[in-house]
Design goal:
Number of domains: 1
Number of helices: 10
Distance between the termini: 39 Å
Order of helices and strands: EHHHEHHHEEEEEHEHEEHHEE
Oligomer: single chain
Structural class: alpha/beta
Helix content: 25-40%
Strand content: 15-25%
């Protein structure tokens, strides 16, 4: 079966940094969720592996890999044979550290398996339990023979994501780069919530990357532990207020409704 959700769907960005599994079976594309996009995944994998295995120097330049991290090119070249682990263990960084999926309660872990999904340049979309290798591929990358990965996924993800949202609320926490992979259609707008985190100091507000990522991770963790199933952006705002956040709700737009979460400390 593909990604199908009866409840809220929380869509996360991937992390640039990833933890490399030390042991585990190699990648099995057919075992990943959303099998409808298996062929699309295989196409990205083939393009990435060919580039990194045949032209490592060109691959480093094309993928923006620093000279001090050329091992990441080799990591990509071995994507089909490297050990895999759960996606929620492979993705790291500020948001995922704050989410800390490994320490969720048993009930929250069950909710995470059905309510979380991660945008991925290599795999399109993955669930927490999907077993994947570590890799390096940004959302704005262009691959020989494939073109921009964002355009590739826009063509492949539309039916999968529409079905994934179903009748529930989409909480879209992706960054702009990964939001380009799939734009929710206007007919879903009333059930789409985006979240912006504003750091307030001495009455002045601004977006700070660290606060944004850490707060989003904490929000996701709190929602999973809480277990409620808001069906509208306004209902989500009410849940977040109950959980202790200061939330302001913007006017709905054809793209959804933005919630501003105001924080004074991380």
């Amino acid at each position: 079966m593909g990604l199908t959700y009866a409840f809220v769907l929380i869509l996360l960005p991937p992390s640039e940094g990833k933890s490399s599994p030390r042991r585990g079976k190699p990648l099995d594309l057919t075992a990943l969720s959303a099998p409808e996009i298996t062929e699309a995944r295989a196409q990205v994998l083939e393009a990435l592996i060919s580039l990194c295995a045949d032209e490592p120097a060109a691959a480093a330049a094309l993928l923006g890999v620093p000279r001090t991290q050329l091992d990441l090119v080799d990591l990509n070249a071995r994507a089909l044979t490297s050990p895999t682990a759960r996606a929620d263990a492979v993705y790291t960084g500020v948001l995922y550290d704050a989410l800390d999926a490994a320490t969720l309660s048993p009930s929250a872990k069950r909710r995470a398996s059905s309510r979380l999904a991660v945008a991925s340049s290599l795999f399109g979309i993955v669930r927490p339990g999907d077993r994947i290798p570590a890799y390096r591929l940004s959302g704005d990358a262009k691959l020989p023979g494939l073109g921009p990965v964002a355009a590739h996924w826009r063509a492949a993800l539309e039916p999968v994501m529409f079905a994934a949202v179903g009748s529930g609320l989409l909480v879209d926490l992706r960054s702009g780069m990964y939001a380009a992979f799939w734009h929710p259609p206007t007919e879903l707008a009333r059930r789409v919530a985006t979240v912006r985190v504003l750091h307030e100091v001495d009455g002045r507000r601004k977006v700070v990357s660290h606060f944004n990522k850490a707060t989003k991770g904490r929000i996701v963790r709190a929602l999973l532990e809480d277990g409620r199933d808001p069906r509208t952006p306004a209902a989500l705002a009410d849940v977040l207020r109950d959980l202790g956040w200061t939330v302001e709700v913007a006017e709905p737009t054809p793209k959804g409704t933005q919630l501003d979460v105001v924080v004074t400390a991380v």
